[in-house]
Fold this protein.
Amino acid sequence: ISHDKVTRFLHASDYGSKELWCYVKPLVKEKERKAGGVLILDDTVEEKAYTDENDLVCWHYSHAKGRHVKGINLLSCLARYDDVSFPVGYTLVKKDVQYCDIASKKRKRKASVTKNEQFRHLIKQVSDNQVSFDYILADNWFAAKANMLFIHHDLEKQFIFGMKANRLATLDANSGQFKPIKSLDLEEGKTKTLWLKGLDFPVQLLKKTFTNED
């Protein structure tokens, strides 16, 4: 396939999350389950080291490499039923606001719409498309208070998130005494019900140690 053919294809239309859903919808409806489905959200950076910087191709933090890299930051959403997964939505992170960092006196970029706002918008889009799911899965980057409140109250769904060790929690909602979860007495592999600071509902925390990992 020639380069020009690909270019003409991409210029023919604005291919976005809506077009993806129209394409994959028949497959999802064929395989989806009324119970047990999950949405898996994650972001990745497609490196573009030699492309001129702009709103879309700019510097993003890569969790895989532990540093900032230049490229396109993609937030994707998969619907999974049993052992089958379908991409049901995505969004691109655009850092469309330029500013001067006071400390370094360097020009930097930031997004007018945060990644967590895009996270919630993407889930709502999938929910509005009537994709069936019970749980939302994501890493600790997306375990923000606003995201958990949105999933629990607005969508009335459940979530499984990674949790940072310094997150404040308490075993007694009435005590008002919050401390980092790393200081709690947690037994490996067993859940404990507790309250995270800022949430008005309890959650269950599970401690799991992975060998050869940080």
In short: Residues 57 and 71 are 5 Å apart (CA to CA). The two ends are 43 Å apart (CA to CA).
